[in-house]
Specification:
single chain; about 280 residues; alpha+beta; 7-stranded mixed beta sheet; 9 strands; globular
Length: about 280
Amino acid sequence: MSDVLPEAMSEEPITVERLVTDLRELGLSAGDTVFVHSSLSALGWVCGGPAAVVDALQEVVTADGTLVLPTFTGDYSDPGGWQNPPVPDDWEPTIRETMPAFRPESTPCPRIGAIPNTFRAYPGVVRSDHPVVSFAAWGADAEDIVVPHPDDEPLGEGSPLARLYEQDATVLMLGTDYETATSCHLAEYRGAFPKERETGGGPAIRDGERIWLEFDDVALDTADFPMVGEAFEHECPEAVTVGRVGEAESRLVDQRALVDFATVWFGENRPESLERAREDDGGE
C-alpha cells in the first residue's frame, strides 16, 4: 500500500470543528448575513463531505444570522442557449414543452456544487422560485432575502442579490475566486455602459400550473469578473480578508463595497474589458 496521499486528499481529515475554527479566524461571526460561494474539493478531505461544511457554517453564523447560497439550475434554462453540450435545434420545442417544472423544495442543483445542493434540502432552508437562478437561505432573514424573486432581471434590482446589498452582507468565497462572484452581476445592471437585452426561459409553476416561463433580462457576462476582483483587491484591500479554510485559500468580502466598485469599474471599462478577457482566454 502506498503511503503517498492522493492529490485531492489533505494531510489530515478536515472536520466540522476545524472548519468552525477556520471560519471564525477568517472573520465570520454569529449574526452575520453571508452569501457563500464554495468548492468542496478545494477544502481538502472533508469528513462528512458537504454536510460537514453546511453544519460548520450554521454553527458559526447561528440562527441569529443568515446564510445564503446560490442554487442555480442552468440545465432548466432555455435550450437555445446551451453550449455544454448543445442540443439539436429540432429538440428544442420538445424540451420546452416537456421539461418538468422547477420546484424550489425538490429540484436539485448539482451543477453549481455539492455544498449548495446539500444546503438547499436542509431543514428550515427557504428557496426562491426562479427556475434558472434561484437562491436558498437559512436563518433570521432567510425569507425576507429570497422571497419574492422577480421573473424579469432576476439578478438585478428587487432580486435576492439586491436585498443582500441592502442587508450589508458579506461574501464568503470558500476555495473560489471572483470568476464566480455572483454579486458582480448586480453591478452589471447598475453600471453605466451599453447593454444588450435577451429573453431567457425555464419551466416554472405559476398559479399552480406548469408553464414555460419567458423572462426579460440584461445580457450578463462573467468574462471580466477576475479583472474586477484583481482591481478591487488592489484598490480596496480593507474590504477583503484572505485566509485558509481547510486547505482552501478563502476570502471574506464586503459585498456592498464590491458591488459599488464593480459598478464604477464596468462603466469605465466595458465593453473593452470583455474583449480583452476573451483574447486572454484564447478567443473563447
